[in-house]
């Protein structure tokens, strides 16, 4: 199975690279295209986990923005980056690539874009599912076949929308929240306790002591308690797409330029700008009422829900 997966991985990636090159070539050569993108500061090696309180944005428009957008879609390898830039953090280029097209051209480009995104999903599935490779061995599995591949870039879908009224940009501070079964987590911690590994500044013995405390804390939680992992996600740029006729807004994560397809007879959508990010001046339009949580295991961002 693993041998077949290696062949499938290489074949799928070659198809993806070719499909991306063709798509970007067509997007770049089309006469009725323009772009606005927002360059963000590059993250240096060793600074991946630093707290980010401010982000300065550099707006770019016109042909330079088109070139940046197309290069970004095809940025798949570590050696595409400067040697000082971290390969552990996502390189993001929010913005919009606006394409004014005839119905036939739009259909053709949409089909090619759909094929690129299908191959991206297929590549991810080969690595994470069909290969049968353990999560801890995926890096080695991928890089033995495709040296220097940035899997996050390879898996990331290229989003498109059709004939919106406006596209505006902003920042999102979010948390990943997921329920977790008490028994499952307890089994995992007990297994780690039996086979402790040294991590960061802790020896195997020191980590075992910490695991024992975490197991004890978890055992004190009622068996029917609702447990949740609530982990903060780094601030990310978003695009808010508005459709006037439907009176509907759709929000997208915007790590790559959003491709906007417009008919030749349509008015071009209004496009906004991405402001600089400042953690101390965040305006929250709507904060849903959250259920109360109390911490159980801080290291795992584990909380118990208070009913």
TrEMBL record:
GO MF entry, a single one: DNA binding
Keywords, sorted A to Z: Cytoplasm, DNA replication, DNA-binding
Pfam families: Ter
Example of a GO biological process term: DNA replication termination
InterPro entries: DNA_replication_term_site-bd (IPR008865), Tus_dom1 (IPR036381), Tus_sf (IPR036384)
GO annotations of cellular component type: cytoplasm
Protein name: DNA replication terminus site-binding protein
Organism (species): Morganella morganii
Phylogenetic placement of the source organism: Bacteria, Pseudomonadati, Pseudomonadota, Gammaproteobacteria, Enterobacterales
Gene, per the UniProt record: tus
